[in-house]
Amino acid sequence: MAAEKMAVTRQTFDEVILPVYAPAQFVPVKGKGSRVWDQQGKEYIDFTAGIAVTALGHCHPALVEALKTQGEMLWHTSNVFTNEPALRLASKLIDATFAERVFFANSGAEANEAAFKLARYYASTRHSPYKSKIIAFHNAFHGRTLFTVSVGGQPKYSDGFGPKPADIVHVPFNDLEAVKAVIDDHTCAIVVEPIQGEGGVMPATQEFMQGLRQLCDQYQALLVLDEVQSGMGRSGKLFAYQHYGVQPDILTSAKALGGGFPISAMLTTNEIASAMTPGVHGTTYGGNPLACAVAEAALDVINTPSVLDGIEQRRQRFIEALEAINAKLDLFSEIRGKGLLIGAELQPQHKGKARDILNAAAAEGLMILTAGTDVLRFAPSLVIPLADIGDGMARLARAAEKVLKPA
Ligand SMILES: *Cc1c(COP(=O)(O)O)cnc(C)c1O
C-alpha cells in the first residue's frame, strides 16, 4: 500500500518553491477535457491549456493510453542508443512539414538554444566565423536560458544576468524597413515568432513574413521561426508558417508538442543539418521514449481534419462572446490573434487591469491568461466543447463586471 501523502496547500508554495512565480491561490488537482478541479473540489473551465500546452485538453484518452503503454515498455535509453518512438515521431513531423531533419529536446528554450547554435554553427562552418549577427524583435519571447533571453526582446527577462551573448540586434516587430536597416553579410539568422505570444498575441503580417524570407535569401541568412506557442494546431494549421506560404530554414516546436508531457523539437533541412557532426550538440533527455510516444499520439490526433477544421468554429465562438462582453462593458480596444490563440487588449482607461480580471475570473471558476499587463490571452484546448466556451464566457463576463463595476 502507498504511504499516506503529506498534506500540502498553496501556502506550502511560499515556503518551499523558489519565488520566481506568483501562482493562483487555488491548487488544481485533477483535469478532464477543458475542466479542472482544485483541492476543495471547486470546478474551473480552462481557457489556458497550461499556456497553450494541453492542446487536446486534460488527460486525453489517446495520450493517457500512449503514456501507459510506453511506461511499461521502455522509459529511457540515452542518446547512446536510438528508440522507436523518437524515430516514428521525427518521421511524422517530417511528413507534415518542410523539414527533413529533427532534433529533440525538452523545452522551448532548449529547442531555441539548439536553433540559435545551429544557425551560428552553420554560418561559421559554411561561410565565415564573423557571420554571427542574429536579428530578433522587440517583445519577442524565446525562453529563459541566457542565449534565449538575450535573443528575446523583453529586457526585463535578461537584465541582471549579464554579460550576455553578443551580436544580437533587436528591431520593431512587423517593421521590414527596420530589418533592412540592420541586416548585412554578417547576419546568420533572423529569429521570429509568426505570432508573438508572450508579447501580446501579435500576428506577423503577410508582407513582413514574405519580406523576411526575401532578406534571408538575399543575405544568406537563415529564417528561424519560433513556433513553440503558435505551433501544433494552435493557429488553425499545424504550424503557423503554413498560413503565410513562407518556408523557414529552422523551426522550433514545444508546448503543445507533447500535449502536456515535456518535449520540444527543432526542425530543419538536410543542407543545414549537414553542418552538424556527432558531439557538436546534444542533451540527455532529448528524444526520450516516454515523451516521444505521447507526442506521437498528440500529433496523430491534432494533425487531422476533424481537429484542425474545428478550430475556426471555436475561434468564432470566442470572438462573438468577447464582442458581446465588449458591447456591454466597452472593455477591449482590439481582439486579435489566429486560431485559438486569442488576445483581447484592454481599452486605455482599463490599462493595467488584466491581472485583476484574471483573478476575478478564477473566483468565478475560469482559468485565463494575460500577455503583459494589458492583454487578456485565451489559449484553450483545440477540442474544447462549444458548451464549455459558452459557460466560460459567462463566467468571464461576470468577472469583468465585478472588476469594472465593484459592488
Ligand atoms: C513558452 C515559449 C518559449 C519557451 O518555452 P519553455 O518550454 O518555457 O522553455 C519559447 N518561445 C515561445 C514563443 C514561447 O511561447
Summarize the structure in words:
The protein has 407 residues and is of the alpha/beta class. It folds into two domains: 10-59 and 305-404, Alpha-Beta Complex (Aspartate Aminotransferase, domain 1); 74-302, 3-Layer(aba) Sandwich (Aspartate Aminotransferase, domain 2). It has 15 helices and 17 strands. The chain has helices at 10-16, 49-52, 61-71, 84-96, 108-126, 146-151, 176-182, 206-218, 241-244, 270-273, 289-302, 305-308, 311-329, 354-364, 386-404, and strands at residues 28-32, 35-38, 43-46, 101-105, 133-137, 168-171, 187-192, 195-196, 202-203, 222-226, 250-253, 264-268, 332-338, 341-346, 366-367, 369-370, 375-378. The strands form four sheets. It has a seven-stranded mixed beta sheet with strand order 4-12-11-10-7-5-6, with helices on both faces. Strand 1 (28-32) and strand 2 form a beta hairpin. The mean pLDDT is 97. Pyridoxal-5'-phosphate binds at residues 107-109, 112, 141-143, 193, 197-198, 226, 228-229, 254-255. Belongs to the class-III pyridoxal-phosphate-dependent aminotransferase family. ArgD subfamily. The modification N6-(pyridoxal phosphate)lysine is found at residue 255. It is found in: Cytoplasm. It comes from Pantoea alhagi.
Please give the CATH architecture of the largest domain: 3-Layer(aba) Sandwich
Gap between N and C termini, in Å?
51 Å
User: What portion of the residues fall into strands of 2 or more residues?
Assistant: 15-25%
Please bin the fraction of helical residues.
Answer: 25-40%
Catalytic activity: N-succinyl-(2S,6S)-2,6-diaminopimelate + 2-oxoglutarate = (S)-2-succinylamino-6-oxoheptanedioate + L-glutamate; N(2)-acetyl-L-ornithine + 2-oxoglutarate = N-acetyl-L-glutamate 5-semialdehyde + L-glutamate
Organism: Pantoea alhagi
Function: Involved in both the arginine and lysine biosynthetic pathways.
Family: Belongs to the class-III pyridoxal-phosphate-dependent aminotransferase family. ArgD subfamily.
